[in-house]
Amino acid sequence: MMSHCLDIQDDPQNLEQVLSDCKETLKYCVKTAHPRFFNQLSTGLDIIALAGEWLTATANTNMFTYEIAPVFTLMEDIVLTKLREHIGWPNGHGDGIFAPGGAISNLYAVAVARHTKIPDSKVKGMTGQPRLVMFTSEMSHFSIKRAGALLGIGLDNVINIKADDRGRMSVEDLESRIEQALAEGGVPFFVAATAGTTVLGAFDPINDIADVCEKYGLWFHVDGAWGGSALVSPTHKHLLSGVHRVNSMTWNPHKLLGAVLQCSAILIREPGLLEATNSLKADYLFQPDKHYDVSYDTGDKAIQCGRHNDVFKLWLMWRAKGDRGMQIHIDHLMSLSRYLQKKVRQTDGFEFVLENPEFINVCFWYVPKNIRHLPPGKERESELHKVAPRIKARMMEKGSTMVGYQPMGKLPNFFRMINSNPASTYPDIDWLISEIERIGEEI
Ligand SMILES: *Cc1c(COP(=O)(O)O)cnc(C)c1O
Q1: Which sequence positions carry the modification called N6-(pyridoxal phosphate)lysine (predicted)?
Q2: What's the rounded mean pLDDT across residues 386-402?
Q3: Domain residues of the chain, as ranges?
Q4: What digits encode the pLDDT tens for the residues 9-54?
Q5: Domain 1-46+322-443 class?
Q6: In the CATH hierarchy, which fold is given to the domain comprising 61-310?
Q7: pTM for the complete prediction?
Q8: Residue of minimum CA distance from atom 10 in ligand 1
Q9: Residue of 280, 329, 323, 327 whose CA lies nearest to 301
Q10: What's the CA-to-centroid distance between 75 and ligand 1, angstroms?
């Protein structure tokens, strides 16, 4: 193999070299906390969360037993209860656990729903079981499908439900696909709605979907990895109205709430199901005759063994800012996004993919002057398709900003702007618009 400056040597390096390694590492990292980094749903660097992560590393303990994480276990219970209160479950009653990201939280939801539908699958496996069928919108996050693949449901039995022109799940299509699955001898068991889709920021109609789930007796999960945090704002929580009716919810505080990576929770309305699904009672960890109440041990609910402490940083942030501070944070990001929408509406050459988006995501094209005269059609679209990647390439070469782009179905590449960095200001938005215009006219 070629020798490389990152290679690890036989001999130890001195302190000076190690410090210089740290500096060089940071130098070549992408500055995700920069006020003009708009590339991801998780951006920014909350100083309190950072301090929390430092303390977490200092304490360096494992979350699986109360025995070695007494304080953090209590904090986890308090924070999970707070999240459940925001969902609207009475007194924050229910269950949950912190998981390594939203994809894993979604996996938990499907696993618990599957166990609830056919409890003996835990022991007997899926062979000879009825053919389970689950439903999710075509706009949902890919991790829902992957959970179906991993849990033996099979991708053929993960049915894509159509979305309307605002990117929301069509309830009529959902109901007709459930009927179709039943007619074909399948056993529907699970529906995933999304609160804040990854690309368009759409909110599926939770109340209407809950009606369908109740009618057919299906587990109702809402993937609120991105949009769940709107619940902490009395101004914006209506986006998730009806959410108290779900059986489970994924919520990623490492996205909109600004906790540093990773911080994601799976919340489950009915206590006991997580444990029933996952517990194997390893006797070297979960001795029943410990000298404390062993129901404090959370480890046997998890699909992991060792578990990182993801809660302390969030607890510390919430404690420091209070409910009011968390609300101000969300409301500020929403107003930055509204401001960007206004700029897109008012600036020549900018076109929305979706007019008046209801959430943080603002998806748009920049149409350079030399193609503005082209009539709608193939030629215009194929020219437009090249614009966003070229603009992004220039931005990255200069190192000035980062914004994501992507195609969607037949739509040419567009920018997806995310304002989830509290360090961003209105002038940063003004700057971004003129930078896109400037580069867009150069290329
Ligand atoms: C980001 C996202 C996920 C995945 O979360 P990770 O923490 O990246 O695993 C799942 N669902 C939605 C809607 C998301 O936006």
Answers
A1: 255
A2: 95
A3: 1-46+322-443, 61-310
A4: 999 999 999 999 999 999 999 999 999 999 999 888 999 999 999 9
A5: alpha beta
A6: Aspartate Aminotransferase; domain 2 (3.40.640)
A7: 0.96
A8: 102
A9: 280
A10: 24
